[in-house]
Amino acid sequence: MHNNGNHSNQLLFQQEKPSLFADVIVPIYLPKILTWSIPAEWNNRVQQGSRVIVQVGKSKRYAGIIKRLHTDVPGLYETKPILEVLDEAPVVMPEQLRLWEWIAQYYCSTEGEVMMAALPAHLKLSSESVIQYNDGHTVAIQELSDKEYILTEALEIKQQLNLGEIQSLLDSNNVYPVVKKLVEKGIATVWESIQETYKEKTETYVLLAPVYRNEAALEKLINEWQKAPKQLDLLLSFLHYDRTEGQVTKAALLKKSGVTSSVLEGLVSKGVLQLEKRSVDRLPQVAKQLDVNIQFSAAQKTALQQLQESMQQHAVTLLHGVTGSGKTQLYIQLMAEAIQRGEQCLYLLPEIALTSQIVRKLRQHLGGYVGIYHSKFNANERLELWNKVKSGEIQVVLGARSALFLPFCNLKLIVVDEEHDSSFKQYDPPPRYHARDAAIFYASVCNAKVLLGSATPSLESYHNCLQHKYGLVILTERYGDLQLPDIDIIDLKQVPESRKQKVILTEAMKERINQTLQQNKQVIVFQNRRGYAPYQLCGTCGWIPKCDQCDVSLTYHKSTQKLHCHYCGTTYPLAKTCGACGSQDFRQKNFGTEQLEELLDQTFDNAVVARMDTDSVRGKHSHENLIRQFEDQRIQILAGTQMVVKGLDFDHVGLVCIPDADGIMRFADFRAAERAFQLIEQVSGRAGRKGEKGKVVVQLFDTANPIIPFLQQHDFPAFYQYEVAQRQLFFYPPFSRLIMLQCKHKDQTTSWMACDALAAWLRTKYDKYISGPAEPPINRIRNEYITELLLKLPRNAAFLEQAKADIKTAIVEMQHQEAFKRVRVSIDVDPQ
Ligand SMILES: Nc1ncnc2c1ncn2[C@@H]1O[C@H](COP(=O)(O)OP(=O)(O)OP(=O)(O)O)[C@@H](O)[C@H]1O
Ligand SMILES: [Zn+2]
Asked: Do residues 680 and 719 lie in contact, with contact meaning Cβ atoms separated by under 8 Å?
């Protein structure tokens, strides 16, 4: 409890004028960072990066982080004193504070929001009401009701109780009226109190009493033992475990020896054994041992050398290595070398690629040097890792994007694996940061190197390589003399007319699956789920209608019976005649993984079919289980979404099927082609990783799609040249920077009008850079209607900074209008 000193502290301020001030970041949304004063007596206790308790508004207290200490007396408002200093040493490093500041600034967020994303729950603290007894009250017992009396008496003994304790005391959930009465009568006061909730995990250990740690004394004791044979048995088994395992917990001893705790207590009361509570490490203990005797192929050796050279010269290097080329092996080698130099490394992966496969691989080679930071870990585990990273005890962290916020003390290498993956971008809640880009900034602060890796780099990163901003190392061969899989195309337009509507798996695809199963190989069937918004497609030539101005596929809206561009908002009548071949044969398309799984199950009697998507892997371990089962070949056919794509490494996949490639290529998004190339190349890359060359079969209508030949040749550079020309033509990234604004309101018209008002305001300066307002494909989330405005801005730092400032002003102006007061606006810089 931290309350006790408060009253006297406040008195102190009135006597001594504070000369030191702290800008404190608090974990709530505040447009500006506020300043508090430091009571003079604490001048030597406060440090940048340590936590203090401050009061915001009338009663809310928060644990905030000191961003800066200074002596500039704030002119505009009277500062309040900080109430408590929580840490003697900083919990956040100066480099981290710079990262927070950069994220807040670049992504139009606030440092408070970044703090909420960055700190483990336990360091954020929780605030709960506590009732405090007032010793000086003069109320007589007769004036109290029964309940009031019970509570008063309890408070007198305990001095303070929280609401939960009062509820159980009075055996009622409705204790407020009683509390209120006591407050009115001056018997108690209500505090918003802050408590640290981190509890060390402790366990009771059994020890031999000191007198018997002497062999002779122990022997004598056992030889002369009389009565209580159960106690003797227990003592003997204790000695056995103590010698074999080094330490014995109470729970383990009772379980192993099968006796009750009263037998153990008997030995304790005789002074033979002792019990001791000790804190235990939550993170599993693995020996700190390196095992990196990797035999690299000639191509890998060359790549490794080039990487080392490139990283000397460039802050950022991209490793473009085809699927199965052994990029992971190279990272491990580089990290092992860093460990030997005493440095820290961060290995970032998209959340769902963070599977036990990669954990096992890292543990195998880097042992106990590795810590894992994962959303599945609980708050205690996260805090422990936080502390071990801070002390330097953990040298390698494997984690998803939020691992970037750990307090590294000697970070020298950041690996961003699968760097093209859009899930590195946080969407909600803010800060909407991109972990790859934030990592590049953070590395510059820490003097660390960044290594981006992918078989299908993002256009942005590859562009930076060709501009010589990043180093580029390429690895064009698979490990083990394996060739990349052949990609065969099945033209759905050729499938007999009468059955066109329903064909999900063509006969040709089924035959391939059968052949693969007969060879005792496994099959992955990929169905993209993001394609749930229905789209129109020409049944004759596969043409998909696109927006004239935005170069993105149009989305079919059932409610309006129109085609919508979700970038600029233009609507088009439903297509009746194909713009490419003139045919009038249009169809609405989409089907999901569930239907696919069912169909596969019915079609292939002898195979075990499983599905991997976000619906099927809800439970904590089900994703891991599925991966294990597939590794062990207990499943023959795995149908799944993106989840089966992310960096998985299976030995026996002979065939990958993509039954609806049209659905991948028609995202209503300027990144459609890039995403499609990435997805198809990545999922294809799961085939034939060991043993022999794999096969990929792709079904689609749109066989004329220009990206198909690039995929069949696995030719990323050629794809890049093609796609980058399109981007330049329509002024999309990497040539521009995008900022997406979303207005949200429960009334659709208000949402639209607000967005329109924003657009009008911004048009005075940015007219040629604005598209919209427009409705996104999913235009209503949690009862709020969403209207979007997209800005495509030139990539000029000063210009962008000004634009961001103008956007913030425009939002404030818009919200000043009475009708739009409740419209919420989100800003997404570099939307994915
Ligand atoms: N030098 C090596 N010695 C032994 N095995 C290797 C070596 N290099 C790669 N491998 C094996 O080859 C397979 C593919 O390697 P890895 O998973 O690192 O590829 P990757 O480049 O990360 O592929 P992807 O981009 O598809 O995820 C793995 O099973 C890996 O263990
Ligand atoms: Zn458009």
From this structure: no
Dihedral sign, Cα of residue 144, residue 146, residue 147, residue 152: positive
pTM: 0.80
Q: What mean pLDDT is predicted for residues 458-470?
A: 97
Average of per-residue pLDDT across 39-61: 87
Residue 389: pLDDT above 90?
Answer: yes
Question: Does the Cβ of 694 fall within 6 Å of ligand 1?
Answer: no
Share of the chain above pLDDT 90, in %: 47
Point out the ligand 1 atom lying closest to the alpha carbon of residue 321: 21
**Residue whose token pair is 């006061």:** 189
Residues 323 and 693: their CA atoms lie apart, in Å, by 13
Mean pLDDT value of segment 54-83: 85
Decide whether any atom of ligand 1 lies within 6 Å of the 300 Cβ.
yes
- The string of pLDDT tens digits covering residues 294-340 is 999 999 999 999 999 999 999 999 999 999 999 999 999 999 999 99
pLDDT, tens digit, for every residue of 551-610?
A: 777 877 766 778 887 777 788 888 888 888 888 887 766 656 667 788 888 899 889 998
pLDDT tens profile 157-203 = 888 887 778 878 888 766 777 887 888 888 887 765 555 566 666 78
Partners of residue 162 on adjacent β-strands: 130
> Is 541 assigned a ligand-binding role in the annotation?
yes
- Cβ-contact 399, 372 below 8 angstroms: yes
Closest-approaching ligand to the CA atom of 554: 2
Q: Are 803 and 791 a contacting pair, CB within 8 Å?
A: yes
Distance 705 CA to ligand 1 centre (A): 31
d(CA 385, CA 402): 13
Of 83-97, 457-471, 490-504, which has the strongest mean pLDDT?
A: 457-471
For residue 515, give every residue at least 6 positions away whose Cβ sits within 8 Å of its Cβ, in sequence order, or none: none
Can you spell out the DSSP letters for 712-750? HTT-HHHHHHHHHHHHHHTT-TTSEEEEEEEEEESSHHH
pLDDT higher than 50, residue 7 = no
CA angle 606, 611, 616 (to 5 degrees): 140
Assess whether the C-beta atom of 647 lies below 6 angstroms from ligand 1: yes
Q: What atom of ligand 1 comes closest to residue 418's alpha carbon?
A: 25
User: Among 343, 341, 317, which residue's Cα sits nearest to residue 330?
Assistant: 317
Chain mean pLDDT for the chain: 86
Q: What domains sit in the chain, N to C, each tagged with a CATH number?
A: 6-125 (3.40.1440.60), 128-195 (1.10.10), 202-279 (1.10.10), 298-475 (3.40.50.300), 486-532+591-728 (3.40.50.300), 534-589 (no CATH), 736-829 (3.30.70.600)
Rounded to the nearest angstrom, the distance between the alpha carbon of 306 and the centre of ligand 1 is 18
The ligand minimizing its distance to the Cα of 325 is: 1
> Looking at residue 404, what is its pLDDT?
97
Which residue is it, tokens 């804190």?
279
pLDDT of residue 635 exceeding 60? yes
What end-to-end distance do the CA atoms of the chain give, in Å? Answer: 45
User: Which ligand minimizes its atom distance to the CA of 482?
Assistant: 1
- For residue 327 the two structure tokens come to 């990029």
Query: What is the per-residue burial (b if ≥16 Cβ within 10 Å, else e) of 523-545?
Result: bbbbbbbebebebbbbbbbbbbb
**Residues forming beta bridges with residue 696, ordered by sequence position:** 487, 656
Query: Is the CB of residue 49 less than 8 Å from the CB of residue 24?
Result: no
pLDDT for position 168: 80
Distance 659 CA to ligand 1 centre (A): 27
Please identify, by atom number, the ligand 1 atom nearest to the C-alpha of residue 296.
Answer: 1
Q: For residue 126, which amino acid is it?
A: S
Residue 781 has a CB neighbour count (10 Å cut-off) of 12
